[in-house]
Design goal:
Blueprint (H helix, E strand, L loop, with lengths): L3 E10 L2 E11 L4 E5 L6 H8 L7 E6 L8 E4 L4 H4 L5 H6 L3 H4 L7 H13 L15 H13 L5 E5 L7 H18 L2 E5 L3 H7 L2 E4 L5 E4 H7 L5 H4 L2
Parallel strand pairs: 3-7, 3-8, 5-6, 6-7
Antiparallel strand pairs: 1-2, 1-4, 8-9
Helix pairs in contact: 5-6
C-alpha cells in the first residue's frame, strides 16, 4: 500500500483554487520531485499533506502504517529562523518532539536518535555551536538531521538547496540521495532545478497549468517539461 495517496485534490486559500484534480502517490523508497512555476501550489501541496491546511476538495490517505506525525519535514527558512539562538544539538533533538508526547523531557533513546543523526550528517563537531553562527549549508544539514529525528520512512523537503552555492548544493543533493538509496527513506522534494530532479528522482510531479505524474523516463518522453525561462523563475 502507498505511503501517501492523493486523489482529485483541489488546493488553494481564501476560496481561491490554484490546483484542481491532482492525483499521485508515494511508495516506500520513492524519490519524488515536485516541480512547477512560482505560485503553482507546490508549498501549498506540502502544507496540505502535513495537515497544516485542509484540501478544498479530494482526499489524502496514509497507508502502510504511516502516521502524519512520522513525516520528517524540512521547510523553507525565514531570516528569523536563521538567527535562532539555540545550539545545534538542541535543534536536532527538537525533531523528537512528536515522539515525546506530553513528557517534559527527552528520553535516552531520543537523545541517541539525535546523536546518531548528527553523526550521520557530520554534525557532531558542531553539536555545541550556536545555530545562527553556522553557514547556510551547515544550517540545512542541521534541519535535515532534525527532520530525520521525526522519521525513518519519509522526508518532505521544501527547496532544501535554496540560496546555497553550487558546491554545497551538490553536497545536499548527494546526502538526500544517500538517505533515499541506502536507508530506503522516501523523499518528496520541491525543486526549481529540473535537471537535478531528472538526475536524482525516481518520479516527477508537475503542478500548475499542466499536470503530470510519472517516472522520470515518462516525463522525459511525454511530460510537459518546463521551458528554460520557467526553470530560472
Amino acid at each position: 500500500m502507498s505511503l501517501i495517496s492523493c486523489e482529485n485534490l483541489s488546493l488553494g486559500y481564501d476560496g481561491h483554487v490554484i490546483v484542481r484534480d491532482l492525483s499521485f502517490r508515494v511508495e516506500s523508497g520513492d524519490y519524488l520531485c515536485i516541480v512547477g512555476e512560482n505560485g503553482s501550489g507546490k508549498s501549498t501541496l506540502m502544507r496540505t499533506i502535513l495537515g497544516l491546511q485542509a484540501p478544498m476538495a479530494g482526499r489524502i490517505e496514509f497507508g502502510d502504517g504511516l502516521l502524519r506525525t512520522q513525516i520528517g519535514y524540512l521547510p523553507q527558512q525565514t531570516q528569523v529562523q536563521r538567527d535562532f539562538p539555540a545550539s545545534v544539538r538542541e535543534i536536532v533533538l527538537s525533531g523528537c518532539q512528536n515522539r515525546q508526547g506530553l513528557r517534559p523531557f527527552y528520553t535516552r533513546k531520543e537523545k541517541e536518535i539525535a546523536r546518531g543523526n548528527m553523526e550521520k550528517l557530520g554534525l557532531l563537531p558542531l553539536a555545541r555551536r550556536c545555530y545562527r553562527e553556522l553557514s547556510g549549508g551547515q544550517q540545512q544539514r542541521v534541519l535535515l538531521a532534525r527532520a530525520l529525528c521525526a522519521t525513518q520512512r519519509i522526508l518532505l523537503l521544501d527547496e532544501p538547496v535554496s540560496g546555497l552555492d553550487p558546491i554545497v548544493t551538490a553536497e545536499m543533493y548527494d546526502t538526500v540521495e544517500r538517505l533515499n538509496r541506502e536507508e530506503g527513506i522516501a523523499v518528496v522534494m520541491i525543486s526549481h532545478d529540473i535537471d537535478a530532479a531528472m538526475r536524482y528522482a525516481s518520479h516527477i510531479l508537475q503542478i500548475g497549468s499542466d499536470l503530470f505524474f510519472g517516472t522520470c523516463a515518462e516525463y522525459a518522453e511525454s511530460g510537459p517539461v518546463l521551458t528554460a525561462e520557467r526553470r530560472q523563475a
